[in-house]
Design goal:
Elements lengths: L1 H19 L3 E8 L5 H13 L3 E5 L5 E7 L3 H5 L4 E6 L15
C-alpha cells in the first residue's frame, strides 16, 4: 500500500513539473532610435532576471538578440523603449536566378 502511495505521489510531482516547464524562444529586440544605453541596459537586465539570455548586442542598430521564456514575450513588448520584437531565425539567399524574372 505504501509503495502504491509513493508511486502516485511521484507521478503527481511529474505532472506538476511538466506543467511548469517553459520553452524558450529567440527574438531580435529593436529599440527606438531615441533610446539611450542606460534604457537598453534596463531592458537587458530585466531579461536576465526573467531567466533569459542576451545572445548578441548589435552595434550598427540599437538591437539585441535574446532568448526568453515564450510566456514573457508580451511583457517584453510592453517596454516603452522597444520599437518592435521579431522572432529570430535563419535567413538565406539563393544565387540561382529565375529566367522568367529576367
Amino acid at each position: 500500500m505504501q509503495l502504491k502511495t509513493l508511486f502516485i505521489a511521484a507521478a503527481a510531482a511529474l505532472v506538476v513539473s511538466a506543467e511548469t516547464v517553459t520553452s524558450f524562444q529567440k527574438y531580435i529586440v529593436v529599440f527606438k532610435d531615441v533610446s539611450i544605453q542606460t534604457q537598453i541596459t534596463q531592458v537587458t537586465d530585466q531579461i536576465k532576471e526573467w531567466g533569459g539570455k542576451v545572445l548578441h548586442e548589435y552595434t550598427l542598430i540599437k538591437a539585441v538578440a535574446v532568448e526568453i521564456p515564450d510566456n514573457l514575450l508580451e511583457k517584453l513588448e510592453d517596454f516603452s523603449q522597444i520599437d518592435y520584437v521579431e522572432e529570430d531565425g535563419d535567413v538565406s539567399i539563393s544565387t540561382d536566378q529565375d529566367e522568367e524574372a529576367l
